[in-house]
Amino acid sequence: MDITLTEEQKLGILNEWNNRPDSPPSLLELIRIAYPDKDYDGRTKEGRMVKSFLATRRIVADGAHVYKPKDKVSLSEEHEEFIINNANMMSAVEIARIIFEDRKLTNLNQETRSVQNFIDTLDNKVIYNAPNEEALASNEYKCPKTFHKMLQRINKYVHEGINESKVTPKQKQEIKALIGYMHTYRFLYQINHYDSQTDRDLFESSFVRYCNDKRDLTQEEVDQYIVLASEVVIAANIQRRKEQLTAMLDAVVQDTDGRASMSLVEVIGKVETEYNQSVNRQNKLLGDLKEKRSAKLSKQVRENASILNLVEMWKDEESRKKMIHLAEMRKEVIKEEIDKLSSMDEIKCRILGLGEDEALGG
Questions:
Q1: Which ranges in 76-195 belong to alpha helices (H)?
Q2: 132 pLDDT tier (thresholds 50, 70, 90)
Q3: Other CB atoms within 10 A of residue 96 CB
């Protein structure tokens, strides 16, 4: 049986096409206009009939398999204000999930792309000068180069630091070593990586507190202490971010009569996990460094034990007298042997090649 479209079906197809110039309907949509109660598609006779009719009007409708990009998502003034206030501590996808209240959004969704595009238009000064944000470092970091300046830096960060008028030779060596540690390329690169002056001070203070009393660190150990100090900064920033998000959540709960944003709760949970991971890394690295240092110091003690014992014995008066007495007795024994040699024939003495003065003088 031949299939033909009625005039009513043709009119419905043309009206649907003409009413949507900005987003033309697909072939499947037009088939459903002609046959609203049926489940026809482009592979059926009815679908092919609709396609043939469109061809007579020089209309080409896309098939269902053709991808049509979604329209760009517009941001309201409230959305933009929220992004400006939080772009310094949240990613684009985290912000999108909150303002659009959709936890399933990813970096590929138009909502997230709209947020990221808006962030890209912001000046860095706008992003980083949010309320309560730390002052930016004004110039390149310069570490202390002299003994006096390094001593002042140590006393700035270390409780009960070092009395400048009572510096011991050991402390002088430790301060000199610390100057060398802080002039390594990796230390300078890491501290200049921080834009915030607060982060720089926190990094420097952590490194000084860990290394100011260690004059014998290897380069590998210095690198490990640099990593440890950087973890302190990471943990502090995560903690600050968590506090800001928690305050934000409290405000949301208050504004919505106790109903919290699940997306915001998820972000806070993620930040909490990051903080715990950073603290665990600090504890593990610090434990490894303490264990290595304890083993090093134990080895040094064993190697120096014999010398220290000798020095202590010499300091003790009774032991010193015994050592002198033993030395005198040894000289007497040597003198007796020399006397025996002196009583031998001259030829035997020449063979030995020794005289009394030579033997006693060593």
A1: 77-86, 92-99, 110-121, 124-128, 147-157, 169-182, 185-192
A2: very low
A3: 28
